[in-house]
Specification:
flat, little secondary structure, about 20 residues
Amino acid sequence: MAEAHSVPWFPAWGVSMPEPVS
């Protein structure tokens, strides 16, 4: 999930964590 800022999957739970780099 390190590529959270690259992949457009974050909209799924981007409501709470748009960049779950952790």
